[in-house]
C-alpha cells in the first residue's frame, strides 16, 4: 500500500509519496521502506510519474519501463501531457497483462463462476473461490499518475489511471483536477472532509440512518476543510503534511504499517523542468556507519 499525492497548481505540478513496499508472505506482510514510487521521465524532462499499488511487474521494474518510455519520447516527443500519459498507459498495460496473465485468467474463470451462480446456471462456486476472487481483485491493482507540461505549451497538467483484473481493455487516463490522493487516502479524507468514503457508505447503509445519502452529504459538507489557493511552496507543504500525517496515523494505529519510510517530493514548475524537493540518497537503507 502507499500514500501517493499529486497537486496541480497554476505554477506547476507537485508529486509526493512514501517509500514502503509490502509483500504478503505465508507468515504475514513483510515491509521494506526504501522503495521508489516517484520517477523522472528521463534525465532532462518536464514529466514525472507517480505510482501506487503493485511495486513492479514481476521481472520488469517500473524504472526500466520508464527508461524505455524516455527513449521513445526522444524519438517522438509527445504532443501533449495527455498523449504522454496515454503512451505510458499503453506501455504499462502491455507489461501488466504479460506479467499477470495467469492470475488474470484465473480471475476471469472465477468471475464466470460468480456470474453463472448469480444467474442460477450452475452451482459449482465454493467459498474458496469467493475468497480467491477477492484476493485477486484487491491485490493485482496498480495505479499511475503522469504529470508536468509539454513544451511549447507550459500549462501544468496531470492524468491518472489504474489497472485491475476486472478490466477487459486499456483505461483512458483521467485528468487530475486540483489534487489526487491514492493508495491509503482515508486519513487525508478524514482530516480534510471529516469522513472517508468507506465510513460514509457504512453510515448510509446502516439501519440507524433513515435518510437519503444526499441528506447525509448536507450534514457533512459544511464540515469540509476547503483548500485555499496557494503558491507552489505552500503546495509542497500541503502534499508533505498529508503524506506525513498518513504515515503517522498508520504508525500509531493497530493496522499494518503499509505507509512509511522516507517521503519523496518532486516539483515541475511551468518555467523549469523536473526537480527533486526531497529525494532519498542511494545509501538511505544503509544508515550511518556504526
Describe the structure in your own words:
- This protein is α+β, with helices and mostly antiparallel strands and 290 residues long.
- It folds into two domains: 3-100 and 140-184 and 239-278, Aminohydrolase, N-terminal nucleophile (Ntn) domain (Glutamine Phosphoribosylpyrophosphate, subunit 1, domain 1); 189-226, no CATH class.
- Helices cover 38% and strands 24% of the residues.
- The protein contains eight helices and twelve strands.
- The protein has helices spanning 62-75, 81-99, 101-118, 127-139, 186-193, 197-205, 213-220, 232-251, and strands at 3-9, 12-17, 21-25, 28-32, 38-40, 47-53, 142-150, 153-163, 174-175, 179-183, 264-269, 274-278.
- β7 (142-150) and β8 form a beta hairpin.
- The longest helix has 20 residues, at 232-251.
- The mean pLDDT is 92.
Q: What is the radius of gyration computed over CA atoms, rounded to a whole number of angstroms? A: 21 Å
Helix segment count? 8
Regions with little confidence, pLDDT below 50 for 5+ residues: none
The major β-sheet equals: 5 strands, antiparallel
- Quickly count the domains: 2
Strand content: 15-25%
Give the rounded overall mean pLDDT. Answer: 92
Order of helices and strands: EEEEEEHHHHEEEEHHHHEE
Widest β-sheet, arrangement of strands: 10-1-2-11-12
- What is the annotated CATH architecture of the largest domain? 4-Layer Sandwich
Structural class: alpha+beta
CATH class assignment of the largest domain: Alpha Beta
Helix content: 25-40%
